[in-house]
TrEMBL record:
Pfam families in alphabetical order: Septin (PF00735)
Subcellular location: Cytoplasm
SUPFAM superfamilies: P-loop containing nucleoside triphosphate hydrolases
UniProt name for this protein: Septin-5
Record keywords, A-Z: Cell cycle, Cell division, Cytoplasm, GTP-binding, Membrane, Nucleotide-binding, Transmembrane, Transmembrane helix
Membership in a protein family: Belongs to the TRAFAC class TrmE-Era-EngA-EngB-Septin-like GTPase superfamily. Septin GTPase family.
Superkingdom assignment: Eukaryota
One GO MF term: GTP binding
Single GO biological process annotation from the record: cell division
Segments traversing the membrane: 361-379
InterPro entries referenced in this protein's UniProt entry, alphabetically: G_SEPTIN_dom, P-loop_NTPase, Septin
Entries under PANTHER family matching the protein: SEPTIN
Septin-type G domain sequence ranges: 50-323
Amino acid sequence: MDSLAAPQDRLVEQLLSPRTQAQRRLKDIDKQYVGFATLPNQVHRKSVKKGFDFTLMVAGESGLGKSTLVHSLFLTDLYKDRKLLSAEERINQTVEILKHTVDIEEKGVKLKLTIVDTPGFGDAVNNSECWKPITDYVDQQFEQYFRDESGLNRKNIQDNRVHCCLYFISPFGHGLRPVDVGFMKALHEKVNIVPLIAKADCLVPSEIRKLKDRIREEIDKFGIHVYQFPECDSDEDEDFKQQDRELKESAPFAVIGSNTVVEAKGQRVRGRLYPWGIVEVENQAHCDFVKLRNMLIRTHMHDLKDVTCDVHYENYRAHCIQQMTSKLTQDSRMESPIPILPLPTPDAETEKLIRMKDEELALLVLGLLHALLLVLLLGRLRRLRAHARDWAFHELSLTGPLVAEPDAY
């Protein structure tokens, strides 16, 4: 019977439509499928729903095209209400910290972009310590995040830490100026610094190559740690590896920005029109703008945030904890400054819980005192009874027995 059933089953299988056969094969596969392979999709959906945030700082002297480059990078005008200062006002201007936040959405993905501008940097005659307000701002964002992270309500922590700093270097010098070296050395342990050669259309290609080599040499000479691109994984495709090699070879990026659209060869492009021709912002033969945009937004934005969190912030956090621990272990009689980061004050719910615990502790102590008093009273009572019994025996021995002993026979 079994030998006859087997050919019949094969015949039925052959008569079934290809669609039915495919459905049967899918059912067999489903029986062996657990489902944890969908975890990346779950993370993706949650991340897209939550949105992303990124804080970018731009620094450099005035007139190097910082605002224009930001507009070209994100196609968003963040400086609509900006007031241009006159020459006399710039003389007395000090370094300021200005924040511009905008919500950008592209193909359903939301990005909260914060641009931290530093107007007035490097514009004074004496620029010594002109980077101090900027380093203070970076430390304040670390401190605020540390306070929020150490608090009780950690659900909605706002991350205002600076994830990247684009530092604009003037193309008119012969390398780094003292203010450039001072700024980058003051911030290279706190922020991911990406140096840029501004207004690259002022130089010919040979001059750009020489300036890049000179800046790389001086960065190594002064021990400045700029942002290092991570190494590619072995399983990455060749196109990505080639793109990564080009990024590393192009740093520091020579960039051009433009807010205007011009017509070149029958096409409308973003660029600058000169009597001798047109400079296209997104033409890789003219500048490194496309490479900078790809690095900053398309390939390395998440790595910039990871390095900020895992390296720069962790160094700050470890330093603060070490300072707080050393201050707590000092002799209380010594005059010492208040710790930089005191523990956060408890909220109303915590204070209520502390009061309840204090009341429970007070009742427990009161009960222990009552029990101790009862033990003392019982011990005193036993001693009084023993003393009374001894006194009674003593009187009995003095007065003689109350009942006469029987006569002996």
